[in-house]
């Protein structure tokens, strides 16, 4: 009880002391059995100052909702205050308090079912007011009306109000925000009608903007967006002593809701949604499910154009924001929406505005959640960083020393997160690929990066996780991204040794090249990628997996299959520079695939065909060189004899003959195609020259 008295004393003073934060903590510990005493204390104070009591109740609803409900409902204080709020300021304070109380589901149900509250609301509603109400009170009453119309607390996106009414409410609240002063949020324990109206108008717009039509209204209103940006800047000048700036939080939440993309849904989730709509007699789908990506992208661009990004970046980098988990989470979701569109110029502009630094600052929370094995970690910031890293030169994104290594840690956390979506895994792999392409040293950092929380041995590092993840997911785009990542990681010496078999030979104490037996191994059947058949725990099995992925089947493979073959064959071209890899690849299956890469049996774009041929020529050159440098003896003779009659060399001769004839006729090629053709042709002639030494 003493805490309530102290709270009222604070309100009377009008300027909360630094120690008053303790009042809020102690109020939260009050027992609901003290409701009668608290109600009487507030009732006595209301005789002298109704507004003061309403502010005290507003604080109580936020920190001790159960006690506040009992005070208002069972002790009859609510009905007394409805009668006593007879001037504009008191009506504003009452509506502000009731709107705050309506955030709690039990109190919202109580207020909705109370006929006196409904009568009071009807009396002052700004649609057809029986009694004129001030502009400040009108905004608070509109918010109360919106909250009492919420049909589902799970989504807060469905209202028992006609859409035309929602549009009218939005227009009134918009006027309040645009015309509002830029005064700093006074905080919980101070009451300013204009500030309360502004805060409630923003919150009301936040609920309404969940309706798709109103998202467009918001983002097409340049004046409103500029007003929001201006308010954000002002709120960062100072925050309430006892709480964060609620205005800044609501603005960020409002923009995040307006720019949100539809969450990816599985087939099962779509079926469940359809069943629910059927059970609800054709109810409309949830607003979030109807958001088209192009509409969300357009709204995000409008937010950027209106100048909202600089204050958002400043807010993310602000020291005091570090302790506000909810604000950081909402900021992360908003920045993810802003960078989602695959628009390189837009992402470049966002980087210039500091979004990269803001996202990196917000990644710490997500990384910590992953490290602590949170049940559902919010990885929005990690995904935003991955998106930026896909389309941006890492040198521009990570300018400070050590920043790239930290960025790799964050993106690797997204790569490993068990709850992640296929899209998040794909984007993490693409981002790590871009980072690994910077230099062999950075490729080594990527390869050795461990998950935020320890995993099993197969997932102990990014490099080791590629094969298990490849087998786990059969989505072609994800598989392509994983092999493209591997193609860049084999720049790293340790990863190179792991995949060529050098590390395996060193561990076994075996000679790098075993005498004989290469062609006696059971070949892998064409197109076979089973883990058992390929023995993926061995270097030979992993190499044969890459061989199988390099092979294109079907009359006209799609672009993803071709890209996967390019990545796999490019990786093999690098790995065959090792004699250990060549020893493991001298199999009939390898010979057949290389011949098809040189002379494909399917229809391919010319650039892709010559890219594959060039990779095959590099592999052929390495295999021929390996055969020529073997120690003299029966094993070398057997290998040389088999290679002289191989399909690979026959295809090499056919490629050289066909493309030499093409060059002789001087048919026109674009520069890239001509360069690829010439490189492959030159390499092929070298292969045939070296093949003559096979004996």
UniProtKB/TrEMBL annotation:
One of its GO terms (molecular function) is Hsp90 protein binding. GO terms for cellular component: cytoplasm. Coiled coil: none annotated. Keywords: Cytoplasm. Signal peptide: none annotated. It is found in: Cytoplasm. Its main location: cytoplasm. SUPFAM superfamilies: ARM repeat (SSF48371). It comes from the Eukaryota. This is SWI5-dependent HO expression protein 4. It comes from Malassezia brasiliensis.
């Amino acid at each position: 009880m003493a805490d309530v008295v102290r709270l009222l004393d604070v309100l009377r003073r009008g300027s909360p002391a630094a120690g008053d934060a303790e009042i809020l903590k102690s109020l939260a510990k009050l027992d609901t059995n003290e409701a009668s005493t608290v109600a009487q204390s507030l009732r006595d104070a209301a005789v002298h100052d109704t507004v003061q009591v309403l502010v005290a109740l507003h604080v109580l609803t936020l920190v001790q909702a159960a006690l506040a409900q009992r005070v208002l409902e069972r002790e009859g204080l609510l009905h007394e205050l409805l009668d006593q709020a007879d001037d504009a300021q008191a009506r504003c304070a009452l509506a502000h308090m009731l709107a705050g109380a309506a955030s709690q589901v039990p109190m919202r149900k109580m207020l909705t079912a109370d006929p006196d509250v409904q009568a009071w609301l009807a009396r002052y509603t700004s649609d057809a007011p029986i009694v004129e109400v001030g502009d400040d009170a009108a905004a608070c009453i509109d918010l109360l009306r919106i909250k009492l119309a919420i049909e589902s607390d799970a989504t807060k996106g469905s209202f028992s109000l006609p859409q035309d009414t929602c549009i009218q409410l939005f227009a009134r609240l918009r006027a309040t925000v645009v015309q509002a002063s830029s005064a700093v949020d006074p905080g919980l324990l101070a009451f300013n009608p204009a500030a309360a109206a502004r805060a409630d108008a923003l919150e009301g717009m936040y609920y309404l903007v969940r309706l798709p039509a109103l998202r467009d209204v918001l983002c097409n209103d340049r004046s409103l967006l500029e007003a929001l940006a201006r308010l954000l800047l002002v709120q960062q000048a100072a925050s309430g002593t006892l709480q964060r700036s609620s205005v800044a939080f609501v603005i960020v939440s409002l923009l995040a809701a307006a720019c949100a993309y539809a969450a990816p849904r599985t087939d099962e989730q779509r079926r469940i949604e359809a069943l629910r709509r059927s059970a609800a007699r054709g109810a409309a789908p949830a607003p979030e499910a109807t958001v088209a990506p192009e509409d969300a992208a357009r709204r995000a661009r409008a937010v950027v154009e209106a100048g909202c990004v600089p204050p958002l970046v400043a807010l993310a980098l602000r020291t005091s924001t570090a302790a506000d988990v909810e604000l950081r989470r909402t900021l992360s979701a908003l920045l993810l929406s802003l960078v989602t569109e695959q628009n390189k110029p837009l992402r470049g502009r966002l980087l210039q505005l500091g979004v990269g630094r803001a996202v990196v600052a917000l990644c710490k929370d997500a990384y910590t959640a992953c490290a602590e094995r949170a049940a559902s970690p919010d990885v929005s910031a990690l995904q935003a960083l991955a998106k930026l890293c896909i389309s941006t030169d890492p040198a521009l994104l990570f300018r400070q020393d050590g920043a790239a290594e930290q960025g790799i840690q964050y993106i690797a956390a997204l790569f490993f997160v068990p709850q992640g979506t296929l899209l998040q895994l794909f984007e993490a792999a693409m981002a790590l690929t871009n980072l690994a392409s910077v230099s062999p040293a950075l490729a080594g950092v990527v390869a050795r990066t461990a998950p935020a929380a320890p995993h099993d041995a197969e997932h102990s590092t990014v490099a080791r996780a590629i094969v298990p993840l490849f087998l786990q997911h059969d989505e072609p785009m994800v598989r392509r991204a994983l092999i493209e990542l591997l193609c860049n990681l084999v720049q790293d010496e340790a990863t190179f040794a792991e995949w060529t078999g050098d590390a395996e030979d060193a561990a076994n104490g075996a000679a790098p090249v075993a005498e004989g037996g290469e062609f006696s191994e059971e070949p892998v059947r064409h197109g076979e990628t089973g883990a058992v058949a390929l023995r993926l725990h061995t270097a030979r099995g992993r190499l044969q997996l890459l061989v199988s992925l390099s092979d294109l089947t079907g009359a006209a493979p799609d672009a993803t299959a071709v890209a996967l073959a390019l990545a796999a064959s490019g990786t093999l071209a690098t790995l065959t520079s090792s004699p250990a890899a060549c020893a493991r690849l001298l199999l009939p299956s390898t010979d057949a695939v290389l011949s098809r890469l040189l002379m494909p049996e399917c229809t391919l774009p010319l650039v892709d065909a010559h890219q594959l041929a060039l990779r095959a020529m590099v592999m052929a050159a390495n295999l021929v060189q390996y055969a020529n440098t073997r120690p003299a003896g029966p094993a070398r003779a057997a290998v040389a004899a088999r290679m002289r009659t191989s399909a690979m060399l026959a295809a090499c001769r056919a490629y050289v003959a066909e493309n030499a004839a093409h060059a002789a006729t001087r048919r026109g090629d674009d520069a890239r195609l001509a360069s690829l053709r010439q490189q492959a042709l030159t390499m092929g002639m070298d292969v045939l020259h070296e093949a003559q030494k096979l004996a």
